Amino acid sequence: MDQQTAGDANVADQLRSIVHEAEVLLEALNGVSDQSLGDLRERVYRAVDTAKARLADLEQQADQLTQRAARAAETYVREHPWAAVAIGAAIGLMLGALIASRAGGARSGERSAPSDGAAEAQ
User: How many angstroms separate the CA atoms of 3 and 122, rounded?
Assistant: First the structure.
């Protein structure tokens, strides 16, 4: 599901970029009055409108997917509260151990280096 969401986000970003570039192109063509360019302009406007509609659909689908995931997580937590507590505690312990190991590594590095006062006393 994460890959689908990432893929949808990528498609949405690409569509936004294409729509923006098409709108810039249309602004540049507004002053030109040649009939063939006018026809091209109309086709591009229709394509931009279609892309905007597709982008709105993708955003709506992403919102629905997010809401379903949130409801599923809430349902799981309501049905298995102790499992949710255990998962949260395990994540907290892992983060605490990671932070402590990084902080401990920095402190042990400081202890092994001689201080200026110790070097002067010798």
Answer: 62
